[in-house]
C-alpha cells in the first residue's frame, strides 16, 4: 500500500466521479488507454477489483466504494489546503518579521511599514530592534535592514531609501569649552561619544575628502551601542557624536546641535531591506518588497 502513488489514487477518483473513462481521461489530461493501464496497475498492486467494467458502463465494486468513501474526502481536504495557499499568494496574509538597527527603523523602515500596513490589512509586521549583526535566518526573521556596505554578498537587497551622509555634531555648550576641529585628526584630542559594536569593537569614524580617506579611532568618557544614545549624549554636552545627517538635521536647524567637518563627511550606499536568496518567498515578504518598489518608483517620478 505504501507504494501506491497519489497520482494513481487521483486516476481512481476521476474514474469514480465520471463513471466514464473518456471523460475521466480528459480531466486527467491523458488518453483513455493510459488511464485504463493506471487503474489496472493500481488494482494489481492492491490485489482487489475496484470497478466492474463493461463496454457500456463503469461501476464501483464494494471495495471501490469503500476506498472512494475514505480517499475522496482526504483529497478534497488537500485541494482546500492548496487553494488556501493560492489565496495566500494572491492576497498575502500572515506575519512579516523584520530585524533592524534602531537608526534604520526610525529613519526609513517605520515609514515604509506604516504605509504598507495601510494597504495590506491581512498582514502583521513584527519589528525587532537589534544593533548587532545577527544570523537572520537562524533567528527566525524574514528580512533585515542594514546599510548597503554591511550586507553579505549572498543576500538579496532592495533599496529602502536614499543614500545616507554622516554628520559629526556636538552641542553649542560643548564648543564653548572646546575648539571646533578643522580636520578629522584633531578629534583625537577631543572627547567623543564612542560607538561600540556587539562584539566589543569600536567604530572608527570614517572620513573622505577628494581622494583622501581616513578612519579615526576616537576616544572619550562615554561609549554606547546605539546612535540615538550617542545623539542624546551630544545634546547633553558629553562630547562629539557620529550620526547620520537624517537623524540630526532637525536638531541642527533648531541650533541644538552644531555640525563640524562637514566637507569631510562622506555619503553611504543607504539603507537596504535584505533577505536570503530563495525561490518561494513568503507572501507577506513578497508583498512588502513589491510595495517598496512601487514607493521608490513613485518618488523618482
Describe how the helices and strands are arranged:
Layout: H1 6-18, H2 21-28, H3 32-46, E1 51-53, E2 58-60, H4 62-90, E3 94-100, H5 102-119, E4 123-129, E5 143-147, E6 155-159, E7 164-170, H6 172-177, E8 193-195, E9 205-209, E10 212-216, E11 222-224, H7 227-235, E12 241-244, H8 245-253, E13 258-260, E14 267-268, E15 271-276, H9 283-300
Parallel strand pairs: 3-4, 3-5, 8-11
Antiparallel strand pairs: 1-2, 5-15, 6-15, 7-12, 7-13, 7-14, 9-10
Helix pairs in contact: 1-2, 1-3, 1-4, 2-3
Reported for the largest beta sheet, the result is: 5 strands, mixed
- Structure annotation, total helices: 9
CATH-defined fold name of the largest domain: D-Maltodextrin-Binding Protein, domain 2
- How many domains make up the coordinates? 3
Rounded radius of gyration (Å)? 32 Å
The whole-number mean of residue pLDDT values reads 88
CATH architectural group of the largest domain: 3-Layer(aba) Sandwich
**Global shape:** rod-shaped
Helix content: 40-55%
The string of secondary-structure elements, in order, is: HHHEEHEHEEEEHEEEEHEHEEEH
Assembly form of the protein: single chain
Which strand order do you get reading across the main beta sheet?
A: 4-3-5-15-6
Task: Please give the CATH class of the largest domain.
Answer: Alpha Beta
Strand content: 15-25%
Q: Point out poorly predicted stretches.
A: none
What separation lies between the terminal Cα atoms?
Answer: 62 Å
Number of E-state strands: 15
Helix/sheet category: alpha+beta
